[in-house]
Structures are given as structure tokens and as C-alpha cells.
Amino acid sequence: MPEFILPRIREISVLADLSGQSLTGGSDALSSDIEVNFEGWVRVQVIPGVDSVWKVKLNGKYGALNQGNALTAGNLWEFDVTVTKGDTINIQTDTDQTVTLLRLLKVVI
After folding, report:
1. pTM score of the predicted model
2. Is there a contact between 99 and 47 (Cβ–Cβ < 8 Å)?
3. Could you give the CA distance from residue 40 to residue 83 in angstroms, rounded to a whole number?
4. Could you give the CA distance from residue 108 to residue 29 in angstroms, rounded to a whole number?
């Protein structure tokens, strides 16, 4: 059996926390994109208020999470987005909702 080595995480901190906020479907959740000043991941944690499709905007381009399938309300979903210095990131949902949990975390390895 091959050995799997996990990277050593040096830092985890909150970049944005929109938990409990009302979001407008089809609009970026953050009023402005976050500019990344590190190498690592942005971990997206979301518990949707309603079943909804979510997209990450990375450097102005949108990509759907979960292969474009709806994230079910009330469940915790986590996604890691690999980033480098100078990248910009934002997130959006397709449906108006009050999100139960929405955090973007800085993960430095």
C-alpha cells in the first residue's frame, strides 16, 4: 500500500465570515474580492440556508463547486481552492438566502 503524506499546515485563519448574512443569488457574497498574499489554499466552509448551487470566483473567472450540483441545506460542505500570491477570490450562490455558515479560511502549508 502506498504511503500518503499529508502536508504540514502552518497557519489557519479566517479571511471572511458571512455566517448568518442574507445573500443575493447571482451576486458576489463579498463586496470586493479578497486579494491573496500567501501560497496555499482558501478553504470554503458553507452550510447553505436553502439547497443551492455555489461558485467560486478566482481571478475573475467563475467555477462551480460540487460539479455544479446543489449543496443541500443544513449540511456542512468544505472545499479547498489552491491559491498563489496575487490571486483574487470571491464566492456566490445562485439563490437568495440567509446562509447558516459561510467562511473563507486561509490555509498556509
Report:
1. 0.90
2. yes
3. 6
4. 23
d(CA 34, CA 15): 8
Q: What is the pLDDT of residues 26-43, one digit of tens each?
A: 999 999 999 999 999 999
Q: What's the grid cell of residue 56?
A: 467560486
pLDDT, tens digit (0-9, with 9 covering 90-100), for 76-95: 999 999 999 999 999 999 99
Amino acid at 53: V
Q: At 52, list the grid cell.
A: 443551492
Give the three-state DSSP class for 4: coil
Q: Which residue has the cell 473567472?
A: 61
Using alpha carbons, list the distances in angstroms from residue 10 to 27, 49, 85.
Answer: 33, 32, 16
Q: Which three cell numbers stand for residue 60?
A: 475573475
